[in-house]
Amino acid sequence: MRTLFASTIVALSLGLAGAAGAAPTVGAEAPDFAVKDTAGKLRTLSEFKGKTVILEWTNHECPYVVKHYSTGNMQNLQKSLAGEQVAWLSVISSAPGAQGAVSPAQADELTRSRGASPTAVLLDPEGKMGQAYGARNTPHMYIIAADSKLAYMGAIDDKPSTRRDDVKGAKNYVLAAMDEIKAGKPVSTPRTTAYGCTVKYAY
User: Fold this and answer.
1) Which residues pair with 150 in a beta bridge?
2) 14, 71, 91, 131: which could form a disulfide with 21 (CB 3.0–4.6 Å)?
3) Start-to-end C-alpha separation, the chain
4) What is the dihedral of CA 198, 189, 159, 199, to 10 degrees?
5) For residues 22-26, average pLDDT
6) Which one of 3.40.50.300, 3.40.50.410, 3.40.50.150, 3.40.30.10 gives the CATH number of domain 2-198?
């Protein structure tokens, strides 16, 4: 039943791909963006030129996101990967009033209470950034290399479930891709199928 449920979520996300916008192409320039963070500062991709950028679409009410935060999996990734040469941007594209929509203060409180450590949390209530990237799910992960080209897009790992026990032993695609990037190697699995809740865009 759990496998069937996960497959349904993936299928639904693929069916909604058109609504979320066409996805960018791995190996091509990543779409630029201009989105305010929780401090009201306008953040753009170009400001991180020369750095690797990890994008994490999130929705704190989504059980798939809860799985990765309640186990500390997402926070551990942020702490181990973000740094001087790597920026981690959490993106909230939920429309006002929709599941996962938060105010800047609420987003900051979530960061504090969960012990998260993104470089910044971007608020995208109109969904422009999400649609430019074709983000369909929460979580939906993207890695942009230092040359501004998209190096990875898709799922956080290979266990499309809400079971917390599945975090242990899962293949973490983001970590694997980052290890290869740091080693100067091409990403061996540059694209996977994201799983999770659909992004709550304002349609």
Assistant:
1) 144
2) 131
3) 31
4) -10
5) 86
6) 3.40.30.10
